[in-house]
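Structure tokens please, single chain.
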Amino acid sequence: MREGTLHHAVRFLWRSRSPLARLVRLVLLPFSALYTVVMAVRSVCYRVGILGVRRLPLPTVAVGNRAVGGAGKTPVAAWIAGFYASRGRTPAVLLRGYGGDEPKVHERLVPGAVVVANPDRVAGAARALAAGADVIVLDDAFQTLGVARDLNLALVSTENTRQVRWLLPAGPWRETAAALGRADGFIVTRKRAGLEEAQEVADALAGRWPDRPVAIAHLAPASLEGMVSGRALPLSTLAGHRVLAVAGIADPESYAVQARSTGATVQLVAYQDHHPYGEADLQRIVRLAGAADYVVVTEKDAVKLRQRWPADVREPLVAVLAVRWESGGDAIIRSLDSLPTLTRRL
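Here you go.
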């Protein structure tokens, strides 16, 4: 099965209310029930001390979510790292090490950050400390219960709330909604969803956990950049043009909707998240580019295509994503500022 076909099949399974999708989910529900039990037992084992929780040597912020992909963890983690860099600190971004694109994306988004990819977060933190970091941002760490954190931020994607409520594999959820109780604060993200829908999600979270800050952040391209040249262009460049939108991310449909919002006619070429882009993929994109005025790629895809793009073919444009706080951002900033400024723990 081709990756694009697999992606559409998974989206169909988790989003569709059709009889076929319901039947497949029904078949998968026993596996989801087993998965739910395993995750619940795991959580209890950490909570009562059967499984140990290790503390990292630096003040730590964790960013993560319940669903499989698509919440905006990478841009939000990069924004937090950039926030600390703007405060004169030296942030480290720690990643699990899967999907070789994300470390390079963080290195480009926050040039002053120490980026460490290692599934062992304790070992990664030691490397970050040795490299001069004084604060850690854990990317995609909401389910990493074996590592303590000073601030635990849960991302809740407005688009993901439209999906079925089941845990993996019948649905997209890695934990039940009750697991959000571990969070110290919530960031409701939206891409193609409207602000009113995002506000409904934020209100529900605030109603259930009234003592915790809830913010809404719009994740959308703010500008364009030549993939090879780095030349900056406004989004309005795409208006009225034919655009080939290439995306190997968790939610390519939102990316295509955002591209269309510029006034462009968009053809989406979607791949699975963290797609490695083989030679056949590159040739396919180059071939399709011949019928488009512009090729637009995400930051994730650019780090894998930049060094391989043919010099005689017009360079793609990178959609530079921005985090724009629409409400509650000041409360999240106060939480981030409240972290200790110690250079190391004793």
